[in-house]
Amino acid sequence: MVRLPLTPDEVERGRALGALVRRARGERPMLRVALDAGVSPETLRKIESGRVATPAFPTIAAIAGVLGLSLDDVWAEISTVGERKVS
Length: 87
What we know:
This protein has 87 residues and is mainly α. The chain has a single domain, classed as lambda repressor-like DNA-binding domains (434 Repressor (Amino-terminal Domain)), CATH 1.10.260. The protein has six helices and no strands. The protein has helices at residues 8-25, 30-37, 41-49, 57-67, 71-79, 81-86. It is globular and about 30 Å long. This is Helix-turn-helix transcriptional regulator. GO terms for molecular function: DNA binding. It comes from Leifsonia sp. NPDC080035.
């Protein structure tokens, strides 16, 4: 399967998602959050750093649940990335 290159907006949304997850995690250890969410610490690290710009929905849902974020809040944070540049 060939994966298409990410658009600049997708890359920016990935960075915004990573920043949101880092803020929500706060001082909690990355290992604890990853294990509680059922993802590898490496996956969480990549999401937080923006290296995984388009993580799978179940992964984001699990991390958001552990961090007490609603999926509506996550979407609100990342969906306006492209719109921010226009204003």
